[in-house]
Specification:
Helix content is about 75%, strand content about 0%. The chain has about 250 residues and is mainly α. It has one domain. The longest helix is centred in the middle third of the chain and has 31 residues.
């Protein structure tokens, strides 16, 4: 994938079996988070929603200092600040968030009896699932390893501009894909909480962007990013751009 060489140049550990270690760390935190969720499901099913929300906030809380403490880490660790911050915050935090997202598919509870609306739910499930998965794949390929791993946060001068159609349609295509997949899982499970959690995902990610990620982007790009934020929605394409959005899903351009 494009950008992998740029990332490994800044994290030489990845050239010496580091990718396997990264995979093991991610798998460990994802497995522990999943085990905790299942434990709550079995012993206190009425509290499963609380457990899921606590895990979400824990994951975001663990990840946020990667951005907030950047200057402190750069002063403390210098060239290895990015490596250490990823290891300390992102590798534990993101698996917690994805474990909570995956938990939506097997939440305990009774499926809602929707009657005639079941067909609408099924259509929406397939729409969000298909567009979410395709958008995820397209966005990941366009974004590249270096940008996905947020290398630009600690090395802004080496940030690589990603010039592709989708960024004129939605500001955060990867997060848009996450919102769609979360909604699809919520609809598929069909409990009141799974659907509510799917609807909560865009709200939670909007708060994350305003409080964390986009603060860093405004700091780097100033008024230019503020203007871009006003012109382009974060996750959902405007009606007039829906055709362009479907074209991007179809051909990646």
């Amino acid at each position: 994938m494009f950008g992998k060489d740029i990332l490994t140049a800044h994290v030489p550990d990845l050239q010496r079996g580091g990718w396997l270690l990264v995979g093991l760390i991610v798998a460990f935190f994802f497995s522990v988070a999943t085990a905790l969720l299942v434990f709550v499901d079995r012993l206190w099913p009425a509290w499963t929603g609380v457990g899921q929300m606590v895990l979400i906030f824990a994951g975001f809380g663990c990840t946020a200092p990667f951005f907030w403490r950047r200057k402190t880490y750069l002063a403390l660790w210098g060239k290895v600040a990015y490596r250490n911050a990823i290891l300390r915050h992102v590798l534990p935090g993101l698996p917690m968030i994805f474990a909570a997202l995956a938990h939506t598919a097997y939440l305990p509870g009774t499926r809602l009896a929707l009657g005639w609306a079941t067909s609408i739910k099924t259509i929406l499930f397939w729409y969000f699932a298909v567009t979410g998965l395709i958008l995820w794949g397209r966005a990941v390929l366009a974004f590249g390893f270096d940008n996905l791993a947020m290398l630009y946060v600690y090395f802004p001068d080496e940030g690589r501009l990603v010039d592709t159609t989708v960024y004129g349609i939605v500001r955060h295509p990867v997060y848009s894909a996450v919102c769609r997949i979360g909604l699809a899982l919520g609809l598929w499970r069909g409990t009141w909480f799974s659907i509510a959690f799917g609807l909560f995902m865009p709200i939670g990610l909007t708060l994350w962007l305003w409080l964390v990620e986009e603060r860093e982007l405004i700091e780097r790009f100033g008024q230019g990013y503020r203007d871009y934020r006003r012109q382009v929605p974060a996750f959902w394409p405007r009606l007039q751009n829906f055709g362009k959005f479907l074209k991007f899903l179809a051909i990646g351009k």
